[in-house]
Design goal:
This is Acyltransferase 3 domain-containing protein. The chain is mainly alpha-helical. Helix content is 65%, strand content 1%. The chain has helices at residues 8-29, 59-82, 86-120, 133-137, 146-162, 173-192, 197-214, 220-223, 225-241, 252-265, 276-286, 295-312, 315-321, 324-331, 333-358, 376-417; strands at 422-423, 426-427. A hairpin with a 2-residue loop joins strand 1 (422-423) and strand 2 (426-427).
Amino acid sequence: MPPRDANWVDGFRGIASFMVVCGHLCTAFVPWLHAPAHSDKEAPHLFQLPFFRLAVGGRSAVAIFFLITGYVNSIGPIARSRSGNTEAALSGLARSTLARSGRLVLPTMIATLITWFLANINAYHMTKHVDSTWIRQGWHRQEPTLYKMFTSLIRAEVGTWTTGWDEYDGTQWTLQLFLEGSMMVYLTMLATVLIKPRARKLVFAVLYVYCWVSGQGLAIGPLKSLNIITGMFLAELQNEYKDAATSMVPAPIPALMIIFGMFMSSYPQDAPERAAWSNHMCKFMHHFTPEGADVRRYWDSLGASTVLFGIFFSRNARKILTSPVFNFLGRVSFPVYLMHNTLIKSILTWMVYLPSAMNPPRNAKGEQMDLQRGSTMHIFIAVGIFYYILYRLASLWVQYIDPACGRVVNAFTKWAAGEPPTHNGHAIGNGHAEKPVLLQ
């Protein structure tokens, strides 16, 4: 795997991608954990309680991705703006707008191509018959003709960025929002690159309030816009205080912020009225959100933002997130996000349901019933193997596919900018080595 400098943002991104996978596994096999209790008269399971439920819930993790998108895409332009180098800031924005789009779209297209190929060799056949509703909904038929095969591929590739829906991988619905979020960053930076940092902070505050009260789609606004703006504000603080931020506030405060943020992020996905703590949170948030808003997204955003600011002010939290384990998780976070649903519908499904598929259950009329999953221990072993395969493939993706995508994107941006092409690391005709481009 190519080297990459360790940083706490990468580690935080790695945790978020791991949480997303956990959340989808929970939805597949134990969806009742998304509620705070089985009913308002039953005691909750351990993983239905605050904090513990973060181990099986991934909604707040999506908010983290948007926070990081706002942060990493604005930190460079803000630094150049603060130094007075507006020409470099504008040039960087122009280049980043093209490069960011390519670095997001090209790997996603490859991931869709892979899941399309698996569907059309009937690798998802078993998913149609399993007892997991979420996995069964991910089934896609094997197209009967080559024409339908390739038209469905084009429809999926285009739909990811137009309608937000990929019929071969429904978990890609957020990627259109990530692209929109990046464009939101670049537009905001373009509008504020010439103003003073104090004025830019005021702009961020006004945008945040506007997106909060307008709802911005009632669900999408709290998920995308609020977190993008918060990420940009944090980038402003990073440029202002740099490493001194970890000594700005007393030690207990960042820890308390992280704990409080984790509690807010524990707000349940389903049936908050079944527990007193989540019911109070629901009623409280309804007083401050637009009518019809999805209060879950507001709690997800507030919780993730509070945790992020706690880490920003904490030296110990940053140190933990720059450790080799979290650095690795961060490096492979995007391919993990792209591939996990494909592997759930194929390898994990095969492992969990193979014993039942070898002897399919039938009802009294002889009709085949849904395949039944194995024992709890069987599932735990299968999930462990699934995680190993997922992260091993993600590591190979970063080693081989990401560099190839990077070369294509860099070549296109150079062509679009009218710069000379490169050959073996040197620009043709000028004799100078081409500087490496760090992929965010």
